[in-house]
Amino acid sequence: MPEEKKKVCFVVMGYGKKTDYQSGRVLDLDASYRNMIKPAVQKAGLECIRADEIVHSGTIDTPMYKQLLEADVVIADLSTANPNAFYELGVRHALRPFTTIIVAEEKLGYPFDVNHTVIRRYKHLGDDIGVGDAQRFTAEIVKAIKEIMKKAENDSPVYTYLKGLKPPMMTVAEELAAGKAKATGKKAALGKRGGPARASKKSRSTKRRASRAGAAAVAPANETLSVLLGRADEAQASGDFAGARQLLLVAREMMRPKDDREEDPYLVQRLALVTYKSKQPTPKKALEKARDLLLTLKPDSSNDTETLGLWGAVHKRLWEETGNRKYLDEAVRAYERGFFLRNDYYNGINFAYLLNVRSAVRTDKGEAIADFVQAQRIRREVITICEQYLKSELPPSRRDGKDTKYWVLATLAEASLGIGDQKEAKKWLKKAYSAAPHSWMKTSTDEQLDKLKKLLEKSPLKAA
User: What DSSP string runs through 301-349?
Assistant: First the structure.
């Protein structure tokens, strides 16, 4: 007796880190998926699939819409008010009257069109999920899946309010046509004399792009976006930024829109980061390549704080490489916007430092004093943010993974030094060193503090 085919749950959500524009926070949606949603689906006995785990050739749209129609259960995570997730949820609601579950991070505001729909909430800590809440939420999703699989009740507002509406189905003729196309596909792939047909212009172009990306980065036909990103993570964690860049170039080609629509910012952001860190072929050229990548995300008008932080970092380094003042001013603007949008210590401490840098090169004494004083004000705000983090243990953002606490303590040391509080600076520096998981972090902090001390010695207030 043939084994019964396992039921499928298709998960609609973004992947990677996404900015919640309502709160300014950055949420790692992969953490939500790995730690709660996927374990819950598997515990309920279903196969769990997200779009980046689908093996496909060509556009992802066809298998995605097929899953929205045919999946036994769909879970839609609307966290960060992701427009793609909302759209795909709407498609699912139009196609199927039941077996759709909506979830979201607790701080998502209720948009009007879903304020009458049950949304199951979970708590996100910025880059991770608390163990207790993960267990609670996982159990809730397991229960929800089992209940809706037992009893088919409308959870789609389309079928709830439009009584008598019949859900669409793939017709027998369409299924036969699809089967026929699959059967004749091999014949179409052969030339008139039985050899391989000449590659299309599009496929030749794709191969050229893959070749430029490097042989090591070419993904096997069955390698999904999720696997590629995982390999890029490993390369980046080991310091192989050039290798991570090669893999992300392939991932970008997989996800690149056919027309002039905008790309997914997460992939572009990651690619920009490893590009400038690779320092290839030269540090300056790597920075220029990263800058060109970020230009596609429109940093001059973007409210994405990840984009702004990267834009600031690239221009800060271009300033250090070239001494060109325009790069310094651009870095200051980026960190300033990022700080006021997110209210976080990372953008804040960089903004303050660059204000001191600009103060030191100002020719107008009044402007130099204004930058210096503003830097001190920003540092006082940063100190408050960091102290709140230490009290709550809930990071507003975690740019450095498990090492966040060290960077918060080091930031407190730098901010205290910047406002002239030597005693507090020594206290926080001692705590930071005791929490440092890697020796290079201490070296990095010492170098930064030495730079800041030299800038403070040039204070325009001394001569005022």
Answer: T---HHHHHHHHHHHHHHHHHH--HHHHHHHHHHHHHHHHHH--HHHHH
User: What CA–CA distance (Å, rounded) separates 455 from 361?
Assistant: 10
Helix locations, 96-165, DSSP H: 131-150, 157-161
Task: Report the b/e string of 398-427 with b at 16+ CB within 10 A.
Answer: bbeeebbbbbbbbbbbbbbbbbeeeebbee
Q: Is 257 helix (H, G, I), strand (E, B) or coil?
A: coil
CA diameter of the chain: 91
The secondary structure of 142-161 as a DSSP string is HHHHHHHHHS-----HHHHH
Q: Cα–Cα distance between 159 and 90 in angstroms, integer?
A: 12
Give the pLDDT mean for 205-216.
41
What mean pLDDT is reported for the chain? 83
**433/406 Cα distance (integer angstroms):** 8
Crossing angle, helix 305-322 and helix 325-342, to 10 degrees? 160
Cβ pair 321, 287 in contact under 8 A: yes
For residue 190, the cross-strand partners are: 196
Tell me the pLDDT tens digit for each residue of 259-314.
666 788 889 999 999 999 999 999 999 999 999 999 999 999 988 888 999 999 99
Q: Coil, helix or strand for 192?
A: coil
User: Cα 24 to chain center, whole Å?
Assistant: 13
| Listed residue (72, 218, 216) closest to 149, CA to CA | 72
